[in-house]
Design a protein that fits this description.
207 residues, alpha+beta, DNA Methylphosphotriester Repair Domain, Arc Repressor Mutant, subunit A, five-stranded mixed beta sheet, 9 helices, binds zinc ion, transferase, transcription regulation, transcription, Ada-like_dom_sf, methyltransferase
Length: 207
């Protein structure tokens, strides 16, 4: 990889340039390139190994990542055919399993202690490992996922803000509203008003 390790965007050193050599590796399904990078397809939300025999995507829909965990942290799912996530180092596999666990528990807080118990690891070790792979702590990662899920509910349902806060496992509407504002820069009500088809349907006065 070193021989053509060109970085496309200096502000994103984690992204690799889709140069001719890498594109040809994808076109030719070259297994000797597996483990050197994975490619994600914007339109499908799936990422693959270079050797994957699935249909060739359009070149401008492709994004490259050095590691499966990086593609996963941007919301891409591993291809079921080539299982690019199976190429991960043991540490990355564990971090990915933690991330999947967090993503499947969006309606509650998941304390680090519980993650430690679930994955038979010391909370301290888990925290450090996760941070190394994902760049943020499990708590930070989980909070972001929960807020994104809440934002999705605000956009696509007519549930009140307090129902969304409750279902999202927040201690109170005030806690939820503060966290939401910290992330999106808007209160949940203002966010909904700026986005949703439900914007004019009802006034959510319970915030
Ligand atoms: Zn694939």
């Amino acid at each position: 990889m070193r021989s053509f390790d060109l970085t496309a965007d200096p502000s994103r050193p984690d992204l690799l340039a889709l140069d001719e050599a890498r594109w040809h590796a994808i076109v030719e399904c070259r297994s000797d390139q597996d483990g050197r990078f994975v490619y994600a397809v914007r339109t499908t939300g799936i990422y693959c190994r270079p050797s994957c025999r699935s249909r060739l995507p359009l070149r401008w829909h492709v994004r490259l990542f050095r590691r499966a965990a990086e593609a996963a942290s941007e919301g891409y799912r591993p291809c079921k055919r080539c299982r690019p996530d199976a190429l991960q180092q043991p540490d990355e596999q564990l971090a990915t399993r933690v991330a999947e666990c967090l993503a499947s528990h969006l309606g509650e807080a998941v304390p680090l202690r519980r993650l430690g118990e679930t994955f038979h690891s010391s909370p301290y070790h888990l925290q450090r490992l996760f941070k190394r792979v994902y760049g943020v702590s499990p708590a930070h990662y989980h909070k972001r996922l929960r807020l994104l899920a809440a934002a999705e509910r605000l956009r696509s349902t007519s549930d009140t803000v307090s129902v969304i806060a409750l279902r999202g496992g927040w201690r109170s509407v005030a806690h939820f509203a503060a966290a939401f504002r910290g992330h999106f820069g808007l209160t949940p009500t203002a966010y909904r008003a700026s986005q949703a088809p439900f914007a004019n349907q009802e006034a959510c006065s319970d915030e």
